[in-house]
Design brief:
With about 90 residues, this protein is of the alpha+beta class. About 20% of the residues lie in helices and about 35% in strands. A 5-stranded antiparallel beta sheet has the order 3-2-1-4-5, with helices on one face. The model has no long low-confidence stretch (mean pLDDT about 90).
């Protein structure tokens, strides 16, 4: 299973087929063939060196919340009232 991670476009490599993206101090070059050229500042869903999807702001918020919940569950600090606020309570 591959986990796609949101990363922000920070620059271009070559003729626009590759973009430099960053997240939390991590920087890498990704192939843009699936999403085409995107402006600097655009958030993308990336996986294994490939930009897979352009993220809308609402999607980015939901993904970041899910990643924060995962990290909190791994370190034992998960709080259901803090994560997944968009889901109804049961």
């Amino acid at each position: 299973m591959c986990l796609s991670i949101p990363m922000r476009v920070t620059g271009w490599e070559g003729a626009g087929e590759f973009a430099w993206v960053e997240r939390e101090g991590r920087r890498e070059c990704v192939n843009m063939m699936l999403v085409g050229p995107q402006p600097v500042g655009t958030w993308l869903l990336t996986s294994l060196g490939l930009a897979r999807q352009v993220l809308e702001p609402e999607q980015l918020v939901q993904i970041e919340d899910a990643l924060a919940a995962l990290a909190a569950s791994l370190d034992g600090t998960y709080d259901p009232d803090r994560h997944f606020r968009d889901l109804p309570s049961i």
